[in-house]
């Protein structure tokens, strides 16, 4: 089983309470099972008797995780509890035990196709191609990160292979990516291609800061906890005149409403709704403040469950686009 490769994590996390306050799902359900300790205890039982993997409550618990990475990032020993949950999901899929909603979603995701429009020395993969007139536009579905998060590693590799072929045919050596999840996923897997986050790319053309405008920046799980706390988005926003207000009760907790699990709202809408409600409750002035997020997943969820909040993407904030697309 894949979880056998994470025996150190199981042994360390199953009796440790130190990071329970950082699990976003645990913070809204108050279930011990929805913490790293709870999940490690469950998987310790599975490791001792593999047939326990078929327990529907155990399976449900693994797919309830938001995979924020905050627990791993702020663990004193950086035990990879996120990797443990991903391994458990791969074991669930390999055993043919994936829940029907998970299988249905994977069936849709694996059909992703990709195409390139326009000409340019670089490619742009995102929602705002007019910000990048010198780039050709790469369009298509999820590049495989969501499938991997669901436990379908083979299908994720299949989709990534199709994407890699399209990029290779273009002859481009640089790919600019808007979505943090896709950026982290592709940067680790597209050897020979320079994968650049949109904030890094746009910094080179950012104007000097204008009049200060207050905004709340909702940090991306992928950029903070999967990409070593990339600071380029904050620097880009400051260059555009934004004064970024602190948010929440601490700088470690995830406020990305399930972004780490990529398709969290599709699988766990009630939990996603509760995560969004917590963001609204933590906000100083939810009806008046401007909220900026690098993640299209976080933006979509917050707008869905709290349409009264002004939430824009990083690229929209830079270009002053305020329409609800």
Radius of gyration: 20 Å
Tally of DSSP helical segments: 17
How many domain modules? 3
> End-to-end distance, in Å?
43 Å
Helix/strand order, N-terminal first = HHHHHHHEEEHHEHEHEHHEHHEHEH
The structure class reads alpha/beta
Q: Which ranges are low-confidence, i.e. pLDDT below 50, for 5 or more consecutive residues?
A: 321-325
- Helical percentage: 40-55%
Sheet with the most strands: spatial strand order: 1-3-2-4-5
* CATH third-level topology of the largest domain: Rossmann fold
Number of strand segments: 9
Biggest sheet layout: 5 strands, mixed
Short description:
With 325 residues, the protein is an alpha/beta fold. It is built from 17 helices and 9 strands.
Features:
single chain, 325 residues, alpha/beta, Rossmann fold, five-stranded mixed sheet, four-stranded parallel sheet, 9 strands, 12% strand
Which helices and strands occur, and which strands form pairs?
Layout: H1 7-13, H2 26-29, H3 36-48, H4 56-64, H5 70-73, H6 81-94, H7 100-109, E1 114-117, E2 122-125, E3 135-140, H8 145-150, H9 153-170, E4 174-177, H10 180-189, E5 194-197, H11 198-203, E6 213-217, H12 221-226, H13 232-239, E7 242-245, H14 264-267, H15 269-282, E8 290-293, H16 296-305, E9 310-313, H17 314-319
Parallel strand pairs: 2-3, 2-4, 4-5, 6-7, 6-8, 8-9
Antiparallel strand pairs: 1-3
């Amino acid at each position: 089983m894949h979880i056998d490769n994470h025996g150190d994590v199981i042994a360390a996390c199953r009796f440790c309470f130190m990071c329970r306050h950082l699990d976003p799902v645990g913070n809204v359900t108050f279930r011990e099972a929805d913490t790293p300790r709870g999940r490690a205890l469950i998987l310790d039982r599975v490791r001792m008797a593999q047939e326990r993997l078929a327990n529907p409550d155990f399976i449900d618990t693994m797919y309830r995780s938001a995979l924020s990475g905050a627990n791993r990032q702020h663990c004193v020993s950086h035990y990879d509890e996120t990797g443990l949950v991903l391994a458990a999901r791969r074991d669930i899929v390999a055993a043919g035990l994936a829940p029907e909603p998970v299988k249905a979603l994977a069936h849709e995701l694996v059909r992703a196709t990709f195409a390139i429009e326009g000409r340019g020395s670089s490619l742009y993969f995102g929602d705002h191609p007019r910000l990048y007139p010198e780039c050709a536009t790469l369009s298509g579905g999820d590049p495989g990160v969501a499938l991997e998060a669901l436990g379908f590693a083979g299908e994720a590799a299949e989709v990534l292979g199709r994407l890699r072929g399209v990029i290779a045919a273009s002859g481009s050596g640089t790919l600019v990516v808007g979505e943090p999840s896709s950026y982290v996923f592709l940067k680790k897997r597209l050897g020979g291609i320079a994968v650049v986050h949109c904030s890094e790319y746009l910094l080179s053309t950012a104007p000097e800061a204008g009049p200060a405008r207050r905004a709340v920046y909702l940090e991306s799980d992928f950029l903070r906890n999967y990409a070593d706390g990339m600071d380029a988005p904050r620097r880009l926003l400051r260059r555009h005149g934004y004064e970024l207000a602190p948010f929440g009760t601490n700088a470690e907790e995830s406020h990305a409403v399930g972004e780490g699990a990529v398709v969290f709202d599709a699988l766990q809408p009630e939990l996603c709704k509760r995560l969004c409600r917590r963001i609204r409750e933590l906000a100083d002035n939810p009806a008046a403040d401007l909220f900026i997020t690098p993640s299209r997943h976080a933006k979509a969820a917050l707008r869905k469950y709290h349409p009264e909040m002004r939430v824009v993407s990083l690229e929209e904030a830079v270009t002053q686009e305020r329409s609800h697309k």
